[in-house]
Sequence to fold (547 residues):
Amino acid sequence: MKKPKSRRIFEDQGAPIGIVRLSILKGIGVDVEELRNKPMIAVVNSHTDLNPGHAHLKYLAERVKEGVHAAGGLPFEFNVPAPCDGIANGNEGMQFILPQRELIADMVETYVRSQWFDGLVLISGCDKINPGMLMAAARLDLPAIYLSGGPGVWQIRFTPGRKKSVDHKDYSDFAQKIATATCASCGACEIMGTANTFQCLAEALGMALPGSSNVPAFHADKLRFARQTGMRVVAMVEEELTARKIMTQAALENAVMVDHAIGGSTNSTLHLPALARELGLELPLSVFNEFNRKVPTLCGISPSGPFGVVDLFSAGGIPAVMKRLSADIRQDALSVTGKTMGEVIASAKVLDPEVIPPREQPHFIEGGTAVLFGNLAPDGAVVKQSAVARDMLAFTGRARVVETEQGAMDVVRKREIKEGEVLVIRYEGPKGGPGMPELLSVTVMLDLLQFKKVALVTDGRFSGATAGPCIGHVSPEAYDGGPLAAVRDGDEIEIDIPQRKLEVKISESEIKKRLQGFKPLEREVPAGYLRRYRRMVSSAAKGAVLD
Fold:
């Protein structure tokens, strides 16, 4: 069998260092003669005991390794961190979540390059880990295949008096509301947050076996897909089917279209451009607007609608969604199967048209994410428009400005914010945060206190769980002297999502005047990685990558 990289382990065996290499391998019980003839497969696992999205991945890794063995390869597992946004929310830990995407990509890349693997399987389930894995695959350009941990289920599915919905907006009883955000099993939180969004997009990119991404974490099919994934990567080594042959510009555009159709997380506007950069391609924010006029939010998956990701699985999963979009999907893009996307979706079936409706009967007539531009966001800002109440798609209100997430929490908790106002939270961007923390705690507090007519504007980001007129990723960020730094209490802010516009109603000359002699608020952070990250990170409009 082919060993395009690992054959070098056996070269120059007459030299002392060659003997040392083989002696080390013997120390782990490897049959050197077997390894001489079989490809080495890295099984990259983000298993951790600390969060449900990854707690079960050690079992999937075992099945992957079985598959690799069965197909004639030799698997070797290693691990990367798996940070949980939920645990870090509302505290300083959130500053370190997005930056770990770069660390994960670096860890996978450097370890694989140093150990001469022939192919790799990437196993993960949650927010920053999924794109970090794919970014590493793009750099390495080896035969690579992604296996998702799959969605879990919310406790509401087992709660007396539950409705058909799993979405918190459909419940007024406090205990039931809490049950719509309580994990009842292993797997990613059962909404179209960043975790499930990128599991879906990995499949849309062609990097996962068709139909595998939405299989629930606890379902027997997940184990079967794990074994098949291990078998398939060995065949990909033989076929020389590498990551960059799959993740092309066409594949990225497919991912953007599926992202719109499923009402994906706004964090996709960070991760897909970052992935494009690793591939040597471009995916500017304007591309999201180009496609959101063409592709509707087909599915009403929470927080955009009543259904959970488990319902999407039952309805036919991502192949069925792509079949609904077949008129626009780039069907010549490749899948890890070696087939084109056209061939993959040809055999797909929609099993529940209520969850995956016909294209002419979408949940929302435009794509899930909109990018807004204007004098407040010259380089762009993003919003999950599919989760915004229709009477709030166009909104004008007076600014109430705070400099920190905690400041925003205090304003909301004390009801110092009023209906009809815009809560501006700045210095939460990639540099200002630093780390671009998500502000889920603020949006949850607004919901629990039943504010209906308050908009948020920030250079930070939001969880995929966020609903309502929450405008994030405002670029340039306040730390870099963007217009957001010039906003004052009482300034009138216009949000017009249908027109893709975000404006503060003051003149350009007034903005420049207010920014004269500008010095950013610079938060003290611990010595170490976060200080380096602040120096090196790019704008959110460019994916918040390290330059």
Remarks:
- The CA atoms of residues 278 and 405 lie 31 Å apart.
- The radius of gyration is 23 Å.
- The first strand starts at residue 40 and ends at 45.
- Residues 1-37 form one domain.
